Amino acid sequence: MGRRGMTANTDDARRRAIDKLEGLGLSAYAARTFVALVELGSGTAKSISATVDVPRTRVYDAADELSEWGLVEIESATPRRFHAVSIEHALFVLGTEYTDRIDDVTAALEAVGSTESSLSRDDLWLSSDPAAITERASAVVADAQESVLLATTDDRRAEPLADALVTAAKRGVEVRAIGVDDRFDESPVTVVDDDRPWNPAVLPLSTVLLADGEDAVVTFQSEESLAFWSRGESNNLLVLLRALLGIE
């Protein structure tokens, strides 16, 4: 690939990353600054401004915003130098922020006395009803055409979906399970040896179910059941989950 092609690919990757970070709550300048620092490792306002479209004087405000998020460390030097946290740590920070927002939405709905157990729209569904959560997850597995991934920090969460997962595998869907015990022995489900697909102390998720790379049911660690479903290959949340689980 020629230099022009490599540059075009890099620019496209930058634009996609910036768009997704903005969708997760960063300002435009903060998103651009963070992407530049991921690319550079560390940098000054001058080097960041030369890498992405951020005026040098605005880099400092963007870096302060990123520091508040816990995404950038600021070195007291002359000139000031900025260091990006690791991509893994950034995913944990952004994922926690996303779940906090959902908790806020749930609390707000409860405060106004909503009698509905679910919040729905075309590409997002939130529920605290255990039966509805299991029904939605089972439907996602049943509708899968190519692949299903179940990752959990609590093997008991896999039990209600065990039959659906085995059935999907028997009809030719590639089904993988992470964090489960021997319940899938002698079945066509592939068990991946990874007891902790993420750090639950940092990212408070209990289970992630991902089908065909675009349907996800995510269950949170909480005293009461709380889960959401989201759809769409380019959905900001699904982009984050695929990165978290190492899925292209």
UniProtKB/TrEMBL annotation:
Residue ranges crossing the lipid bilayer per the database entry: none
Q: What is this protein called?
A: TrmB family transcriptional regulator
InterPro entries assigned: TrmB-like, Tscrpt_reg_TrmB_N, WH-like_DNA-bd_sf, WH_DNA-bd_sf
Q: Which Pfam families match?
A: TrmB
The cross-references to PANTHER family, in alphabetical order and at most eight, read: HTH-TYPE TRANSCRIPTIONAL REGULATOR TRMBL2
Q: Which residues does the UniProt record annotate as the domain Transcription regulator TrmB N-terminal?
A: 21-88
Natural source organism: Halomicrobium mukohataei
